[in-house]
Design a protein that fits this description.
alpha/beta; Helicase, Ruva Protein, domain 3; Zinc Finger, Delta Prime, domain 3; 4 domains; Rossmann fold; five-stranded parallel beta sheet
């Protein structure tokens, strides 16, 4: 049986609850649907606010062939299958327009977005992108300039109540309010929990909802505590040379849809901060992992991340370069710009030479080149 959220999904623009600023009378998306205007657009908003629903209603209004892809798992080959083997910009065959609904468009890397661009530009595909991230940062400018951006808002409690009532499932005392607080403006989240509690316990009470929440999958808020706790555990596991623990936390982040570039950036930092001089090639590996994530994207770049994690976790560790930098920074902050010894100053003019700049400089001098006040200071502890 289809999930409850799909079974009660609105089929027409009049059935959509919430987003009045977009679908209310005279508002842009309603007008586009009613007048069958065909153009590409991006729906930006929190989860469970109606992005998929609006895309399906729009495609239906155009009498278009709708193709739904998730950028988490889709790639260039999926686009090729939709547009066929003809060259980009080839004369379009008469028939139904093709609408591509690309969920989580921010997961498409630059190369994939570049590949999609000419099909959108030529009209061979009408793109509807859905994203929870700011498209200004996640969508390439060329694609963004050819699309309108519509911002969706978290659903109000009034809207959520109306949606939950459509489910026609009896709720125990206080259950409505429990679901509203749990959903935090996300209709799909509320409906999924409602359905889960009913299936597991036969009735929807606060007790049943609490039990259902405890047995649900781990939640991962990319901006919340779980995000920071997991990346912290990941880094500390690699630092402790525990590849099994590091791989587990990597898997948690991947399965939760964490941005692979965020993970790879932390690995690049780790390669210099914690491995450093012990194994300088670690920085090369980490940078290549970042590059792979940037050019390949999910799901395949998960393998590159795993390769890098195994290497970094098993590498010897040496924080001497990192510790030396931090110690030197402390002195700079405390003492300011101390005078640089004259013998190592640049002397491009005669005046500077007359003032002693560069005088008695020796290429391999054993005397300290630090400012006089710090000449006996040791930053590297070997």
């Amino acid at each position: 049986m289809e999930p409850l959220a799909n079974r009660i999904r609105p089929q027409t623009i009049d059935e959509v609850v919430g987003q009045e600023h977009l679908v209310g009378e005279g508002k842009p998306l309603r007008v586009a649907i009613e007048k069958k205007h065909r153009f590409s657009f991006i729906l930006w908003g929190p989860p469970g606010t109606g992005k998929t629903t609006i895309a399906r209603i729009y495609a239906k209004a155009l009498d278009a062939d709708l193709y739904e892809l998730s950028a988490v798992s889709a790639g260039k080959d999926d686009i090729r299958k939709i547009v066929g083997e003809g060259s980009v910009g080839a004369k379009l065959e008469l028939g139904k327009p093709k609408v591509l609904f690309l969920d989580e468009i921010h997961r498409f890397n630059k190369s994939q977005q570049d590949f999609l661009l000419p099909y959108v530009e030529s009209g061979e595909l009408t793109l509807i992108g859905a994203t929870t991230e700011n498209p200004s940062f996640e969508v390439i400018p060329a694609l963004l300039s050819r699309s309108r951006v519509f911002v969706l808002e978290s659903l109000s409690e009034e809207s959520l109540r109306a949606i939950l009532k459509r489910a026609k499932i009896k709720l125990g005392k206080g259950s409505f309010d429990w679901l509203l607080g749990y959903a935090n403006g996300d209709a799909r989240k509320a409906l999924t929990m409602l359905e889960g509690a009913q299936k597991l316990y036969g009735e929807v009470t606060i007790e049943a909802l609490n039990k259902a929440e405890e047995s649900s999958h781990l939640r991962y808020d990319k901006k919340g505590e779980e995000h920071y706790d997991t990346i912290s555990a990941f880094i500390k596991s690699m630092r402790a040379s525990q590849p099994d623990a590091a791989m587990y936390y990597l898997a948690r982040m991947i399965e939760s849809g964490e941005d692979p570039l965020f993970i790879a950036r932390r690995m690049v930092i780790f390669a210099s901060e914690d491995i450093g001089l012990a194994q300088p090639t670690a920085l090369v590996v980490a940078n290549e992992v970042f590059r792979a994530c940037e050019t390949i994207g999910y799901p395949e770049c998960a393998i590159n991340l795993a390769h890098g994690v195994a290497y970094l976790a098993n590498a010897q560790k040496d924080r001497s370069a990192y510790d030396a930098l931090r110690a030197a920074q402390e002195d700079v902050r405390a003492l300011g710009n101390l005078p640089i010894p004259k013998n190592i100053r640049n002397a491009p003019t005669k005046l500077m030479k007359d003032l002693g700049y560069g005088k008695d400089y020796k290429k391999y001098d054993t005397e300290s080149y630090l400012p006089e006040k710090l000449k006996d200071k040791k930053y590297f502890e070997k």
